[in-house]
Amino acid sequence: MSSQLALIKAIRSGQLAAVRQALDAGEPVDADDGQGEPGLALGMACFMGHAEIVRELVQRGARVNLDDNRLPTSPLNMAIRGKRTEVVRTLLELGADLPPGLPCGLTENEIMIARWKAQRDGLAPAVELDPAALPQIEEIDMVACKGTDTLVLESDALRLARDMR
Description:
50% of the residues lie in helices and 0% in strands. By secondary structure, it is mainly α. ANK repeats lie at residues 37-69, 71-98.
C-alpha cells in the first residue's frame, strides 16, 4: 500500500499512530488532492473532525491558512462544513485567520479565547492597541471582598477584551 493511501486511510479512520507512521515513512504532509491543490490530508482531517490529527499535521508543516480562508478547500472551511466546532477551535488556536462574518459555530468568547491562545503560543500576531483608545479604568482598593459584585468587574473585562479585537 502506498504511503499516501496509508495516510488517507489513517486519517479517515482517525488513527493518529498510523498517521504518524505514514508521515514518518515519507508521505508529504501537504500532498495535493489530484487537481493540484495542496492540503488534502489536513482538509480531510478537518472535515472528519480529528482535532489531534489536525494538530499533528500542522506540527509537521501543514498550512492552516490559505490566501483566502473563505475558499471551500481551506482547512477552516472544511471544518465548518463538517460542523466540527472542536476542530474550528483547534485551527484558531493554531493561528488560522477567521474571515469577518464567516459563521463558524463558536461563540464570540470561544473565538476570542482561541485567538488569545494562538497569540500566546506565537502562532498569530499580537494585536497592538492604541493606549489612547483604551477606556479609563478606575482602581479600587478593597480590604475584603465580602459582598462585592464581581459580575460588574467581569463584564467590564469582557467588554475590554472584545474591544481589543
